[in-house]
């Protein structure tokens, strides 16, 4: 019985504060939309691919051992690509006004399991800059790895290309607005329950029973204004007659 009453109270609180909850949710969605469309800068992404493969003069010399060696080196290559040795040269080559740490944040290295292909993805607010950074990183790494590790097993498989009318990958306005709607809804519901918790006014006999811990045995019904005026007139007439 107590559970049913609790649920009834919950629905009563939500029903009473539905306007407040709706306003907060709508404001959150509107704020997310304004920030996504007019404040946040669009971010573009491009990528280039490197192939890690031993160069063999004779194809018959290409063995599974060579492939296994290349796969073991790929994790090391991933670390070298994002090292200061490579990124400092990229910054100098492209004349970038960023630090090595900032450039590192723009670059993402990924590989698939048992794949000899390394994917270098770059994000930037300028699509042209993103393409230039990706290609410069791949080219400089291809040259420097020969000196650093005395190997010649890296080649550019697919350079980054600037597409016509590139689309930004971030921000995602509709996703941001959906998240804002969920957050606004939770904030609105939380605020509604907080206001209900802070409201200590006595509104009915049930509140009296809860507050004092004693049963209510009777109550005085409110007198309507019309009835009050009638009683006042009746008293006035009685006084005149007396």
Automatic annotation (TrEMBL):
<dbReference type="Pfam" id="PF02706">
    <property type="entry name" value="Wzz"/>
</dbReference>
<keyword id="KW-1003">Cell membrane</keyword>
<feature type="domain" description="Polysaccharide chain length determinant N-terminal">
    <location>
        <begin position="4"/>
        <end position="93"/>
    </location>
</feature>
<feature type="domain" description="Tyrosine-protein kinase G-rich">
    <location>
        <begin position="142"/>
        <end position="194"/>
    </location>
</feature>
<comment type="similarity">
    <text>Belongs to the CpsC/CapA family.</text>
</comment>
<keyword id="KW-0472">Membrane</keyword>
<feature type="transmembrane region" description="Helical">
    <location>
        <begin position="174"/>
        <end position="198"/>
    </location>
</feature>
<dbReference type="InterPro" id="IPR050445">
    <property type="entry name" value="Bact_polysacc_biosynth/exp"/>
</dbReference>
<feature type="transmembrane region" description="Helical">
    <location>
        <begin position="20"/>
        <end position="40"/>
    </location>
</feature>
<dbReference type="InterPro" id="IPR032807">
    <property type="entry name" value="GNVR"/>
</dbReference>
<dbReference type="GO" id="GO:0004713">
    <property type="term" value="F:protein tyrosine kinase activity"/>
</dbReference>
<protein>
    <submittedName>
        <fullName>Capsular biosynthesis protein</fullName>
    </submittedName>
</protein>
<keyword id="KW-1133">Transmembrane helix</keyword>
<dbReference type="Pfam" id="PF13807">
    <property type="entry name" value="GNVR"/>
</dbReference>
<dbReference type="GO" id="GO:0005886">
    <property type="term" value="C:plasma membrane"/>
</dbReference>
<dbReference type="InterPro" id="IPR003856">
    <property type="entry name" value="LPS_length_determ_N"/>
</dbReference>
<keyword id="KW-0812">Transmembrane</keyword>
């Amino acid at each position: 019985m107590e559970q049913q009453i609790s649920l009834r109270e919950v629905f009563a609180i939500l029903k009473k504060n539905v306007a407040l909850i709706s306003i907060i949710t709508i404001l959150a969605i509107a704020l997310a939309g304004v920030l996504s469309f007019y404040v946040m800068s669009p971010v573009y992404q491009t990528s280039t691919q490197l192939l890690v493969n031993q160069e063999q003069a004779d194809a018959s010399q290409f063995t599974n051992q060579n492939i296994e060696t290349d796969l073991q080196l790929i994790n090391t290559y991933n670390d070298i690509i994002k090292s200061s040795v490579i990124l400092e040269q990229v910054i100098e080559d492209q004349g970038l006004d960023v630090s090595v740490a900032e450039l590192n944040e723009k670059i993402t290295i990924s590989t698939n399991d048992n794949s000899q292909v390394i994917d270098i993805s770059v994000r930037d607010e300028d699509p042209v800059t993103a393409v230039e950074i990706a290609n410069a990183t791949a080219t400089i790494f291809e040259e420097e790895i020969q000196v650093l590790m005395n190997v010649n097993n890296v080649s550019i498989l697919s350079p980054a290309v600037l597409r016509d009318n590139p689309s930004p990958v971030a921000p995602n306005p509709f996703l941001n607005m959906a998240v804002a709607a969920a957050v606004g809804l939770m904030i609105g519901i939380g605020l509604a329950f907080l206001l209900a918790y802070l409201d200590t006014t006595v509104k009915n006999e049930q509140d009296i029973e809860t507050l004092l811990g004693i049963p209510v045995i009777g109550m005085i019904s409110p007198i309507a204004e019309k009835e009050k005026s009638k009683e006042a007139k009746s008293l006035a007439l009685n006084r005149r007659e007396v």
